[in-house]
Every structure is written in C-alpha cells, then in structure tokens.
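Quick start: read one record
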Amino acid sequence: MGSPPTPLPSPSTPAGTHGLTALLAHPATATIALDFDGTLAEIVPDPEQARAHPRAVPALAALAPHVASIVVITGRPAELAVKFGGFAGVPGLDHLVVLGHYGAERWDAATGAVRAPAPHPGVAAARAELPALLDAAGHAAAQGSAQGTAQGTWIEDKGQAFAVHTRRATDPQAAFDTLRTPLAALATRHGLVLEPGRMVLELRPPGVDKGVALTKYVQESGAETVLYAGDDLGDLPAYAAVDTLRANGHPGLLVCSGTEVPELSTRADLTLPGPAAVADFLAALAQAVSRT
C-alpha cells in the first residue's frame, strides 16, 4: 500500500489557481523553471558550500517524466550549479537543462556539455579595479560613523560575472549600502549592470536576465503552462516574463521561496518557507501529476 497523497498548498491568487489547475490538468505541456540558490538550495555564508536540498533532486526526478521540461535558471556558472545541485547522471533527469549566468550559459543533461559565450571585456576590467574600490570604501567607512562596515566583504569570481558578498561583514546591511553606489558606478564605466541580491552585489554583462532566459526557453520548448520559483531580486525579470506569458494566454504559477524579499513574495501566487518546502511542494506536485 502506497503512502497517501501529499496535499498541494493552494495559491493565493486567481491567476495562480488557474496556473496550477492547468498544470495539473495538462502536465505534459508544462515547463517547471527554478532558481537555484535560495530556492533549491539554502542560502549559506559561503556560496561554495551551497548544495541542493536533499529532497530536491529526488522530487525533480519524480516530476520530470510527467512534464514537458524542467529548467534551472541561475546566476551561477552552469557547471557549478550542476555540480552543487548534483544534477548530472540522475535517472529521470535525462533532459534537464541548466541555464547559467542568467541564461548566457547552457548545460544539457542529454550531452553533459556546457555552451558559453566569450567573456564580456568589461568584466575583467571592472574586476581589476575592484580591490582598490573595496579598499577605498573600507577606508571611508572607518573615517565615518559606519566604522569597518566594508571589512569582511569578499569577491566571488563567476567568470562571466563577479559578485561582492557582504554577508560575512560585521554589519552586512551597512556594507551592502556602502558599496552599492561605487559598484554601480564601476558597472557603468565598463558597460556592465549591477544586480543587487540578498547581501550580494553582482556585476554582469547587459542583455541577459532570467526573464529573457525563461522567455526564450518557453518558446523553444513550446510549453503551454509555466511554473517559476525564485527567492531574490534577480528573479523579478522571470516573474515579469510569466506575467507577460499569462497575458498572452499561457497559464502560469509564480512561487516564492521564503519571505526575505518582499518585492518578490508580495507578487507571488504561492509563498513557501524555503528550499525544504519547495522540495516538498515539487514532490507533492509529482505525486499529483502522476495520477492524471
């Protein structure tokens, strides 16, 4: 005798209810799109230690055979997301796609290969200026009331982009606020864009974001229904893309992992407490669509 079905949480909006209903009625025409950090993996002080929640990959593997496609869209390099997610070689995830660097890179489980463009020249130029900028910000902070706020920051080199993390600083929010303006100026000088997140400021090339990546992928896959789950400001373009798809007749469901970013959670159709709850939701969804 199998385990009883896990109830699915109910969306709080009519559009979300319509999206979930359409997904359950016709799962074979649905795309499931997911952010990685904060959605499939917990946010941790050291991004190199991030791993998909233990229940996430089994849930995705159970869900994948019943839907049109599953895609992970992340700001990380695709190869790192695959490694930290444990996505390679998983039975059931033979057609998983990971779009890294906001869609600039692509990894296909079917081939195991990563396709990536040449790096934007502004990334290397801005990265070369970064140590002096951080030193100057730290010195300025020490001279003012926010003493030491820029100390404890560190740089994550993503190849196609780089990020300055303030989570380990003595005062993470003050460090974030101190660095936001000079990093925005640095991005502008080198033709880059600044992407703020949860105690992180990322500089990356223009013209790529999760909304562009999701829209292109949905067009490629021919999906009729779209579920997107994210947790941070970088997911807002994907939310906007789902809104556009819904306006064009494609049912959609917006899921938010956590409530730390109200700009996202207040727009979501369904808010879940974090990656563990997202994994359980995906598992419940797999159970539900397997019965259709």
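The longest helix spans residues 121-143.
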